[in-house]
Specification:
The chain is an all-alpha fold. The protein contains nine helices and no strands. The chain has one domain: ABC transporter type 1, transmembrane domain (ABC transporter transmembrane region fold), CATH 1.20.1560.10.
Length: 341
């Protein structure tokens, strides 16, 4: 976990260069969430205007529909701009990391190049950085919006009815506990998967690049056996990583369904007792859905982030390798060497 936190801090330093874009993305996320949370209030008001027979306020409903159209337009525009900014942040950070890794590779000691498989080095700079890119993009596009949605929904729910909002708050820790419990056990599997992926890339690269030597020394069978062994390990690690990570979403969905049922039951009782209008109950049920949805999305994001952090750790390992020691100041340059000893 310490290595995980250290990797995350180093990623934040890379992202810090684009803090203006990050703040702009957060601001747009707030706008998107605010407009999405305002829509259920409009729908609830429309329901209250059409409850009784012959008592339907057509003008009021039309006015609400116009407002809803404006809100949807603002949401769509803000979300489009936010996605453009998130893509720009992600691919600029990935570009900076790849350039940093490649430049460092040019200055590495020859001993490191000789003692490490070339395919593994290639895998770190290409495959692992691509995995990091996918995780970062999902983190920016869904994680920020999800967290703001959860906080915003709670504020709106407390403003409508405190008691029902408390039901949601009391059930929320169950979802957080389950997601955290599984995520902690997923990182090690993704780390092994990333390492083994680099190993198999390295083996394939070595065998294809040195095919003449393989055939000359009749090493075809030994090469196939080694490939099968690495491939078997990669399959096992990938299956375990996928299995543990796939448990997060259905587990949180189950708990979120319990939250929704609790809101529906308590809200219906309040509506029957006259403490809540039908429109407000409709609004609350919509909020319960919006509140639980980010937990499902964040659980998927956590899985991708675990994979991204495992890949980033391998890239930082390469960057942390000692560079070739330069010649001492004033060292004499070898001239007219004829090769004699």
């Amino acid at each position: 976990m310490k290595n995980n936190k250290s990797t995350f801090r180093r990623l934040l330093k890379l992202i810090e260069k684009y803090k203006f874009l990050v703040l702009l993305s957060l601001l747009l996320a707030v706008v998107v969430v605010a407009t999405q949370l305002y829509a259920p209030i409009l729908f609830g008001n429309a329901v209250d205007l059409a409850l009784g027979k012959g008592n339907v306020d057509i003008k009021g409903i039309v006015a609400i529909l116009v407002k809803t159209g404006i809100v949807i337009g603002i949401t769509a525009l803000a979300q489009w701009i936010m996605n453009v900014i998130n893509n720009r942040i992600t691919y600029r950070v990935v570009k900076d990391l790849r350039v940093q890794a490649f430049r460092h590779l040019q200055n590495l000691d020859i001993a490191y190049i000789d003692s490490h498989e070339h395919g593994d080095i290639v895998s770190r700079i290409i495959t692992d950085i691509d995995q990091l890119s996918d995780g970062l993009l999902m983190g920016f596009t869904q994680f920020f919006t999800g967290v703001i949605t959860i906080l915003g929904t709670l504020i709106f729910m407390f403003s409508v009815n405190v008691k029902i909002a408390l039901v949601v708050v009391l059930l929320t820790p169950l979802s957080l506990f389950v997601a955290s419990f599984i995520a902690k056990r997923t990182y090690s599997m993704f780390q092994k998967q990333s390492q083994t992926r680099g190993e198999i890339t390295s083996h394939i690269n070595e065998m294809v690049g040195n095919q003449k030597l393989v055939k000359a020394f009749s090493r075809e069978e030994a090469s196939e056996e080694k490939f099968d062994e690495i491939n078997e390990r990669l399959t096992n690690y990938s299956l375990k990583a996928s299995f543990f990570s796939s448990m997060v979403n259905p587990s949180t969905r189950l708990i979120n369904a319990i939250v929704y049922a609790g809101v529906g039951t308590f809200g219906a009782i309040s509506a029957i007792a006259g403490r809540l209008t039908v429109g407000q109950l409709s609004c609350f049920l919509s909020y319960a859905t919006q509140y639980t949805k980010p937990f499902n999305e964040i659980s998927g994001v956590v899985t991708e982030l675990q994979n991204a952090l495992a890949s980033a750790a391998r890239v930082f390992e390469l960057i942390d390798e000692k560079e070739q020691i330069p010649d001492c100041y004033g060292a004499k340059e070898l001239e007219k060497a004829d090769g004699s000893v």
